[in-house]
Each structure stands twice: as C-alpha cells, then as structure tokens.
Amino acid sequence: MTERGTMETLLALEDVTFSAGSVSILKPVSLDLVRGRMTGIIGPNGSGKSSLVRLVARQQKPTSGTIRLDGRPLDGFGERELARRIAYMPQFTPPAEGMTVRELVALGRFPWHGALGRFSGVDAEKVETALERTELMRFADRLVDSLSGGERQRAWLAMMLAQDASCLILDEPTSALDIAHQADMLALVRDLTRERDLAALVVLHDINMAARYCDELVALKDGRIVARGAPDAIVVPETLAALYGLPMGIIPHPATGQPLSYVA
Amino acid sequence: MKGQRILLPWAGLGLLAAMLFAMELRAAWPQGDDALQWIILQNAVLPRAVVAILAGAALGLAGLLLQRVLRNALAEPSTLGISAGAQLAMATATLYAPALMGWSVGFVAFAGGIAAVAIILALTWRRGLEPVSVVLAGMMVALTANAASAALILANGDYLFSLFIWGGGSLVQQSWDPAIAIGSRLAIGLAAAILLLRPLGILGLDDASARSLGVALHASRFAIVALAVWIATTVAAEVGIIGFVGLAAPALATLSGARTLRQRIVAAPLIGAILLWVTDGLVQLASGAGGERLPTGAATALLGGPLLLWILPRLRMMEWPSLTTPMAASRRAARPVAMLLVTLVALIFAMVVALFAGSGPYGWTIATGDLLADLSQWRIPRIVVAAAAGAMLAAAGVMVQRLTGNPLASPEVLGVGTGAGAGLTAVLLINATAGLFWQIAGAAAGALGALLLILGVAARGKFGPERLLLGGVAIGAAASAIITAVVAMGTTTSYTLLTWLTGSTAQADATQAFTALTLMAVLITPALLTVRWLDILPLGGETAKSLGVPLIRARFLVVLLAALMTASAAMFVGPLSFIGLIAPHLARLLGLGRARDHLIGAVLLGAALMVVSDWLARMVAFPYQLPVGLFASLIGGPYLVYLLSRGAHQRG
What we know:
Chain A has helices at about 50-55, 80-85, 100-105, 110-115, 120-135, 150-160, 180-195, 205-215, 230-235, 235-245; strands spanning about 10-20, 25-35, 35-40, 65-70, 70-75, 85-90, 165-170, 200-205, 215-220, 225-230, 250, 260-264. Chain A is an alpha/beta fold. A six-stranded mixed beta sheet of chain A has the order 6-7-8-3-9-10, with helices on both faces. In chain A, strands 2-1-4-5 form a four-stranded antiparallel beta sheet, covered by helices on one side. A two-stranded antiparallel sheet of chain A has the order 11-12. In chain A, strand 1 and strand 2 (about 25-35) form a beta hairpin. Chain A is globular. Chain B is mostly helical. The interface of A and B includes residues 78, 95, 96 and 111 of A.
C-alpha cells in the first residue's frame, strides 16, 4: 500500500512543542506528511490532536521547533501563499449565514485572486469542478444553512478543493455526522488524496473509521506520539490499551480483514 | 498569606476614604457655637458620607444579583439601561403626571427601570440572553432613553434642567431621608439575597442544569431581577445615575478571591461602598469647598470606563456558545442588480419628495417656481447632509456586523460617536461660542481619540468580535459620562450639547452639505474595496485565516473605516440613529446577501431612510422641528424589536 503516489515529503514537523501559558500541550513532536497519503490522528480527549493540526495549518504558532512545507519554514510563507498550499477545516464550521453553496465554494478562490483581483474564468472553472467532484451541483444555489449536516460538511470540503491546495487538514470532520455520512466523507477525502496526489491530515475519534480509511495512523497521548504506522500495526490491543487506559480487543473485519476494536 | 495580600488594597482604599472624610469633617467642623454650621454638618456632610457608603453597597449588591441570574459579567444597572429608563420615566412623569411624582418618586423610577429591563430581556430572549447581545440591547435602550430625555428637556426648557443635574448623580444631601430609603432597601435586599442563596447558586449554571435541579427557573429569575431593579432604581431615584459601581464591585470581588457566592454577597457590597466613598471623597477634594461642579456619578463612570477595559480580559465570560447565532435565514434575490436599482429609485424618490413636498402655514404644498427656489437653499443642504450621514452609518453598520458576525452590532457600539461628543464638549467648555469649524474639529479629535482607544483595546484581542464590542460599549459609556457631567452644569453649552445629542440637521448649510458629501465619497470608496474580506470575515477568524486573509490587517482596516464613517456621521446627526443597525438588515431582507450587494444596498437604503426621517421630523410637528436622530431611533426601535422577536431559528 506504500506504492501509491509520489511519496514526496510535503510537510515536516521538527521537534515542535506547544504550550498554552504554563501548560504544556504538545511535547516535542516530529512527523512528516507525504503526498498521496491520508494520515489519521487518534488519541484520547486532551491529547493534543487539535493543537497539532492547528499548528500545521498555522492557526497557532508553535512554542518551539519548526514546521517546514517543501523544505521552507512555515513562518516564511505569506498568508495567501500558504492558503494556496494548505487548506484547513476547523472542528466547528461556522454558520455561513445567507450564503449559497456556490458562493461558499467560491471563497476558496480567495488565496488565488486576493482582495482586489478579478474572479477569472479559471477560478469559476475550479469552483464548478469542486462542486461536481463533491456531488453538490444540484445544491449549488441553495443556502448553505438550509443543507443537512452531511451536505454542509461536503460544501466546506468543496471549498477546500476549490482552494487547490496540496495539503488538506481536517479537524474531526465527522464528529456531527451519522455513520453513512461519516463513511461518505472519509471515502471522499481518501479518494481525493489519491486522485490529486494530496497529503491529508485528519483528526478522528472513531478508531475503526480511522483504520478503515487512513493509510497511516498517528496515536497521540499527553502531547506525545506514542505510536505511528499502518492501521494494522496501531490497532492492536496493547497499543489501544496504553492509549485509552482501557482493555480493548481486536477482531478482523469479516470482509476486508482490517482490525476492528471493541471495549473488552 | 494570599488572603491578606488581597484584603490589603481594600483596607488601604477604605482608609483613604476615611481620611478624605476626616478632611471634610475638619473643614465643616463648627467654629465655636455656629448653629448653621452644626446643621450643615448634621444634615449635609454626615448624610452625604452615609449615602455614598449605602448607595455603593446597594449598587454592588444589585450588580451581583443581576450578573448572577443573567449569567452575564457585564450586567449592571447602567449597562442594562435601568438607570436611563428610570430617568426617562421621571422626566415624563414630571411633565405629564406630576401627581405621580408627588406620590412616589421611587415607584416612577422603578417602573421606568423595570420597563427597560423587560425590553432588553424580551429583545434577547430568543438569543438565550447571550451576554454580548444583552449588553448591546442594553446600550441601545439606554441611548434611546437618554435621547428621549434630552428631547423632553430641550422642549421644556429650564423646567427639567434640574432633572438632568440629577442625572449626573450628585451625592449632595440636605437630609437623612435618602440615606434611610437606600439603607432600608439595602437591608431588605441583603436579607432576600441570603434567603435566596441556594437558588442563586443554581441559577449561575445553565438553564438545563438549573431546571433539572428543580429550580422554578423563570419565577426565581424574574423575582431576583425585580429585586435588583428595585434596589438600583431606589438609588437612582434618591441620588441619580451612578454608573459602573454595580459592574466593578462584583468583578473586583471575584478578582480579589471571593470564590463562593456567600463570600461574594459580603464582598461585593463592601467593595461597592468603598469605591463610591473614595470617589465621592475625591470629587469633593477636587471641587474644593462649596464648588459642586462634577457630579459623583459622572466621576464613577469616568473611572469605570477604563476599569471595564482592564477587567474585560480578566473575566471568563466568553464561554457562551451562541455568539454567532444566526438571524433567520433570508431568501436571496434572483437578480441583485435589479434589486439595487429598486433601492436607488427609492432613494431618489425620497429625495424628490423631501425637496418638493412640505407642510406650510396653509397645509400641504408642492413647492414650485419661486417658492421652490427660496426653499431649496434650506432644503437641499438638509437632504444632502441627511443622505450622506445615513449612507455612512449604513456602510459602517454593514462592516461592523460582518466583522463581528453579530447582527445586533451597530456603529454606535464602537463608541466613536459619543467620543465625538466628548470632543465637542471639550471645545465648548473652552469656548462656549466656538464656531462650526472648531466644533467639527473638536468632534473629529474626540472621535479620533475614541477610535485610537478602541483600536488599541481591540488589537490586544487581535480585533476579535467580543473585545471590540465590549470595549466600544465601555468607551461609549465613559464619553457619555463626560457629556452628561457638562450638560448637568446647566449653561448655554448644555443646550448646544443637548441639541447635538438628539441629532439635528436644522442648521445644515451649504458648507456642511459639501463637507458631508466629501467625507462620504472619501470613505465609502475604500469601503467598497474591502467587500471580498467582508464576504469571508463573518465566517470567523479560523476560516478567514485558512483562506489566506491577512486577518489583523483586514480587521484593522475595516474597523478604521467604519469608525471614521461613524464619527463623520455623528458630527451631523448626533451619536445615535439606529440607521446603521437597520439599513444592513433591510438590505439583507431584500435578498442582498453577498458583501458587495449588501454594502451598496445598505448605503442606498440608509441614505433613503435618513432623508425620510429628516423629512418626517420636519413635518410631523410643524412648525416645530423634531431632532432627526431621535426620530430615526423612534422609527428604528420598533423595527429592532420586530427583528429580534423573530429571533434565531435553531440550527439542525
């Protein structure tokens, strides 16, 4: 499963730490993200998952350490320059009051045309492609707020696609969705990483969902990476027990053979 | 010990207050057998100190109760419009029902106060009494009540001036009656608060938890609010408006380490008493013997504004989840450009009617020929000034609402309008007959000062919505205090300021019209260049950042432009109008959703609304002219009620 994509390192975290006041949230963390691969971050509440992805999206600055994008420190990027490379979906997407789906998706072109530039034919084309790829065409002129939770989440993903970034960062994109929409959303993200040779970093709570769709899992506990690797290597009783402090068992998926965890 | 370190400053302040009091005593102590001096000592000096202590304690308690039941660290008698409501009720009663005032001043004040709170609670009920909205609604109610009081005073001349002096919150005493009234209410309030300790504790939780713990939620909440209003309006009726003590005392009690409710019920009144006693001591020291220029209430507001700014970042109050609760989703216009043309036609129609139609000594007339030529030199400048001011307020409103993502935000909340008033006050204080140029220059300087302050405050919070809104309210309150203090002097300056407060275009001339037009052109053009930011900013800082918007720079520029437009408009039509709040909503109701259409539509509608308001203000009570600012807010207030009562629908 490692033969896919160009496998070139896109993002690299080197000994990154983060503290809020005197509370240390991330102990030195090193990690690299590779194109064509979807990386899932799992871990108990308060383990620093959200902080980690927020640092990568430059929503917050690390307390120490460097994050490099294509070998360049993240600090050196201009705002729009970075937004053309990294797209980020926060854990709670804000209400897009009075905005249609197409308008929301079109905001993804801001990094390209800026505050005063013309909204060009290329921009319009990218918006249409993103709408088509996320199967939102028939909702394009509906108000975002009138959509169901799953469709709304897809509209935000479409905005990220229109952004044409090489790295997608999603903070718990499935937390408010039912199981069918969770599966839809994650399958879509996985397919996109392959089609467009993107690096994706996704925070997930559900280990089984994470194991099912991610190429690689990173397990965080108390601000440290305690395990990292392919899902079969991470979703084992010992690792999960250490991660959640709860005895857990594993059975193979009847069809795919992927590991499924349960509380023992 | 930590406890001692925290108690020490209060002990020190108490000692300072006592020393100031000792100095007053020494100054007033009778020489030999002077009977008059004895009377002054017994009936003026001593009761004044007692009233300061009791009123401070009462306000501290009222503030604590309100903050607790509304779960809002910024609730207090003046931010909730209770004091302003009481003042308006007393002004109205003095004019139209003097018997009622003779019967019970306290009752009239209570009725006004409770009405103000009822309006605010009704306005924000659907938004779950979310703190920022409650404070914004409170400020709107207070501003409107103040403008209405000012208009009553203007219309009735000297008769009501004493009331405005009272409005400044002077602690000068002639007898022990106020002390007894406030003291008895305070005692009842404290006893009730101690009895209600348990429900009060639970009311600090969220509604669902409180209800599941078996508290009769609304009944106990309303009972406690009514109790707090009763205590606060008693103070208002006896000594006038004293701002910020009710806000600062509970906050300082918490910051000083009073953790449990029981500790706070003791600490907040004590701290309130010390604060007001010290302030009053300092006011007396500053005014010298006999001089009574600065009312103590104005002084507390003057000290309180900065205090509020200092407290804000130290309070945990922003955990309320629904700051961005949306208004009901609006439909979208199929062809926005056509809709913009309709609003343009509406504006032109309003201007034409305002120019030609008028009510004269012989009934309604359509002016033509020579009459029109005569009248246009009066009417055209007014129309131009009104339109330009309305356009700027509307543009500022769109920008502030989009920046903060709060549909209740309006240019008034930036505090620059009242800042302009404070500047105007300063100029008039130096020279009561200063010309228009100096008046405008003073207003501009005041607005700029307020603007720099709000930018400084907001910058520390990275121009985030909450800091901006609450900082603006604080600056506005401090500036209002300066204006009130000077108006309370009762000189010719007061009339100029009152006229400005109610917002009048009656003196508009060609120079003013030209200035207004130029300002509008210079400020709205750059505003149009920010529409792409304005599309993204309502989605919040995170989204804006991940889309590559230079967040701090964008917010800074938007705030700067909005503030400049507000200040410019305030110079012509006074500090309040609601146009900046309403025009953006109307544009949205017409289906103008994208920032560009929204901005242009609101500008056209704002101009039209202001022209209509001005025309109506000129016509309704002909030959008398009503102030346009007040008139616009009388139109705007009910609309606001309607808007909010439709409320936010729950998101699925």
